[in-house]
What we know:
Blueprint: H1 15-26, E1 33-40, E2 45-53, H2 61-75, E3 79-85, H3 89-101, E4 108-114, E5 118-121, E6 131-132, H4 140-147, H5 169-188, H6 191-202, H7 210-219, H8 223-231, H9 238-251, H10 258-271, H11 274-287, H12 292-302, H13 310-313
Parallel strand pairs: 3-4
Antiparallel strand pairs: 1-2, 1-3, 4-5, 5-6
Amino acid sequence: MTRSQDAPLYRAHTFEDLLNAVPTLFGFVPRESIIGLCVSGPRNRFGFRLRVDIPRRRFEDEQVAALVAEHLQRNADDGVILIGLSEHPAVAEELLHAVGDRLGPVPVRLKIWANAERLWTDLRDCPSEGEPYQLSAVHEARVTAVAAGLNVLEDREALYDEIAPVRGPRQEWMHDAAFTVLEDVCHRRDHVAEIAQVERLLDGGPEVTDGDAVRLGVLVTAIPPRDAAWLRIDRANAPQMHRLWCTVASRVPESMSVPALCLAGFSAWLWGDGARALVALERAREIAPDYSMANLLFTIVSEGVNPARWADIDPSGERLSPHVLTRRSA
């Protein structure tokens, strides 16, 4: 679930344009998906959007339709566009109608469903056999997004590669280094110094050496340094912070990666990339089901909370006292 933020400007003039723009909204090419786009103004400017998998079991359709409608009602602007993508167009069409029936007063400006080759709409002049279209990696919508620095992957599973651990001898070296750093940090137990280290490393930008990534990963296993890093993330630097914390999470042992995964997930959510946020947070919860930060952020993202609301609770760059918490997990 995603809120639009600083997306590259692109105007879709045809249904084919719209379907080619969808991957740029989520960072990957959705398949077997129901998508809701909140739109505003006469030009249907995109705002909040969400994507859910089409259930494999038809008896779950009603539950999915209700979930999608609930989130769209909560975040609706002037109206919504509903999109269904499936190799079984009739299933997608039925789900779109089920969502539309639950939207109450929220206007549905368009319903469009498609398989890999043809699309249909709820407009009266749409032929019963649909219309041909082509999804292309070199379509103007995709090219515009890539030129603006967005990485559009071929499917959702590819998002997991961004947080996948390194392998081989390099992994062994970094894991040994992580435990060496952890031993040193635990021996010193100086959270003021740890926070200072974190801030110094973050000042260097999103590109970090393996050694610095390992040190960052170990340092944020303690709550005060982690929260100091958390407070450094804002809507302007969130894409770079997501890349940095994905790197950190991939360099440390799995047992130490959860704080970095949480920071990557938060960065993605604040940036407006709900898919990447959920991938990182789902992985964090798999590793440490009781880690409170992961569960809190997962709830926020899953419930479709608008990232703009973070400004209401962001303490404007204030640093947490290093004596508030001293545990190495939360």
